[in-house]
Design goal:
There is one protein chain. The radius of gyration is 28 Å and the shape is globular. With 527 residues, it is mainly alpha-helical. Helix 11 crosses helix 13. It has 19 helices and 10 strands. Strand 1 and strand 2 form a beta hairpin.
Length: 527
């Protein structure tokens, strides 16, 4: 609308204020206000019917171009929790050109993950994620649709289902017994617990994938190296990256995130290539005997896949990456946090040992079949997952269409962070939320199946964690074995530190180092 429209009005006000003009000016002034009000309402009306949308959620003031990037803090989960204290359970940040939405209430999480699940079951793939998974070809980053469904089905059916896991119990047992034996040989010495559990989980996963494990002398050094690589990868995945917020800048990789990720991913890629090569040679030379590792199943699927939905070699390697990176750090960090919390609470430790002594006995070793009879251990796992959920903001979701949540507009393509860490510590729901108190789970009131939006450490809806059964078994079996086989104390002069460090996977800021003392009746129980 041209400004000329307003000229007579402006002219009338610019005339000198003469007596006969006062009344006339008053009338003009009323007209002016009236027209202004009319125009305002008209603008609102046109704007509303043009967008047909409620506003964006509230959020902190943003600067031109950079939005709120300047005020992000490294511990994103606690920073987001503090924003929700000021702006409410749904708030907005401008991440450069991208809208970030933070959700910190069960009812709103339900809207996103259940009521509008198909729209929000997508991902806004970060540059680091693309680099780590051959361009986002794995389960985690593939958009919701037939390809994702196929990848997920293959993994769950052929590797992560209860029946497949039952059939490879011997692998878990072998690896865990090896860890217990290693710890026995370290009695009286300081041990990095997270590293040992990481290595155990890694060995279980790689032996399920292609039959290979890390043994003997390599155990300590390779375990530490692999853990370092996975940990750096998950840290990079959680790093706010300019390439993600200004797509035009992705090519420049200003923070070097993609470059660093490329180097890390290459380490695994080389291993994958050599294992695939080895497996293909073995298959060519075999006399058709059945082998049962996952890689063989995948290679068979690749060759057989019908043309409509082929499984390519790149997707196959991306799946291997998901299992190795997604399955190891998550599980071992949760066990490490649980061990630290238990050592901080001697009454929890003694209740756990009592339960284990009654069910397993001090002249016996823990088997996975005992786990069903250990309700206190189960409560300890649930409490560890409540207070330190491995993925504190889940894997961010992304709507494929503009939608309304909690009365606010969530634009298509936003990055939606669901702060499960804050929801699981909400004092209006959880009594003494920062206290590690497994008893709160003893009455089986909450489970992590994704149906309760006060407690969902594995997420919920279509994108719920694909490895819950595996995580559950590895956690329960390893924690039970550690607590049953040894008494634990801190090295002299060390203090227990429970501080968290943010990454897409949460970890302990300071590694838990502790000294094992054997507590079973017979040294042969450690062989
Ligand atoms: C304590 C251990 C674990 C925790 C707390 C955990 C938690 C999660 C969470 C919160 C998500 C994202 C859900 C969402 O975006 O809404 C996820 C996704 C995923 N998890 Fe886990 N996880 C664990 C262990 C594992 C293991 C052992 C594996 C496999 C070996 C695994 C494989 C995956 C995969 C493939 C996805 C992507 C699913 C998809 O996008 O469709 N996780 N996990």
């Amino acid at each position: 609308m041209s400004l000329k429209f307003f000229k007579p009005l402006f002219d009338s006000f610019s005339r000198p204020l003469q007596e006969p003009n006062i009344e006339k000016n008053g009338v003009f002034f009323s007209y002016f206000l009236g027209i202004l009000a009319l125009l305002w309402f008209l603008w609102l009306f046109i704007n509303k019917s043009k967008n047909g949308q409620p506003p964006l959620p509230p959020g902190p003031k943003s600067l031109p171009l950079i939005g709120n990037l300047h005020s992000l803090e490294p511990e994103l989960h606690t920073y987001f929790a503090s924003l929700s204290q000021t702006y409410g359970p749904i708030c907005r940040l401008w991440l450069g050109k991208k809208v970030g939405i933070i959700i910190t209430a069960p009812a709103l999480a339900r809207e996103v993950l259940k009521e509008q699940d198909t729209i929000f079951a997508n991902r806004d793939v970060p540059a680091a994620g693309k680099e780590a998974t051959y361009g986002g070809k794995d389960i985690t980053w593939t958009p919701y649709g037939p390809k994702w469904r196929m990848l997920r089905k293959v993994c769950v059916r052929d590797m992560l289902s209860s029946s497949t896991l039952d059939s490879v119990y011997e692998l878990r047992r072998r690896e865990l017994r090896q860890t217990i034996n290693y710890l026995y040989n370290q009695k009286g010495l300081s041990v990095n617990i997270g590293e040992q559990i990481f290595l155990t989980v890694l060995n279980v996963i790689t032996s399920m994938l292609w039959g290979g494990t890390v043994k003997g002398e390599e155990r300590a050094s390779l375990g530490a190296e692999f853990r370092h690589v996975v940990s750096e990868m998950t840290e990079l995945l959680g790093t706010p990256n300019l390439s993600d917020f200004y797509p035009g800048l992705e090519w420049f990789d200003l923070q070097g995130v993609a470059k660093k990720m490329k180097v890390l991913a290459k380490r695994f890629d080389k291993i994958f290539d050599s294992r695939i090569d080895q497996r293909q040679k073995m298959d060519r030379n075999s006399d058709g005997q059945e082998n049962t590792d996952f890689l063989q199943v995948l290679l068979k699927l690749k060759d057989e896949a019908d043309a409509k939905m082929p499984l390519t070699i790149t997707e196959l390697k991306a799946l291997l990456m998901d299992m190795v990176v997604g399955g190891t750090d998550t599980t071992s960090n949760t066990v490490e946090f649980a061990m630290a919390e238990i050592m901080n609470k001697p009454d929890v430790l003694s209740k756990l040992q009592q339960e284990l002594d009654t069910v397993v006995g001090k002249d016996n070793i823990v088997e996975e079949s005992h786990i069903q009879q250990l309700p206190y251990l189960y409560a300890v796992m649930k409490e560890a997952l409540r207070i330190h959920p491995a993925l504190p903001l889940l894997v961010p979701h992304c709507p494929s269409e503009t939608r309304t949540v909690g009365g606010y507009t969530i634009p298509k393509g936003s990055r939606v962070f669901i702060n499960v860490w804050a929801i699981q510590r909400d004092p209006s729901f959880w009594e003494n939320p920062t206290e590690f108190h497994p008893e709160r789970f003893l009455d089986n009131k909450w489970d992590y199946s994704g149906s309760d939006f006060n407690y969902f450490p594995f997420g919920s809806g279509r994108r719920i964690c694909a490895g819950i059964t595996m995580a559950e078994r590895m956690f329960m079996y390893s924690l039970a074995s550690l607590i049953h086989s040894f008494d634990w104390k801190l090295p002299q002069g060390e203090k227990l530190d429970l501080t968290e460090k943010f990454g897409i996977v949460l970890k302990k800021k300071m590694p838990l180092v502790a000294i094992p003392t054997p507590r079973l009746s017979n040294p042969t129980l450690y062989e």
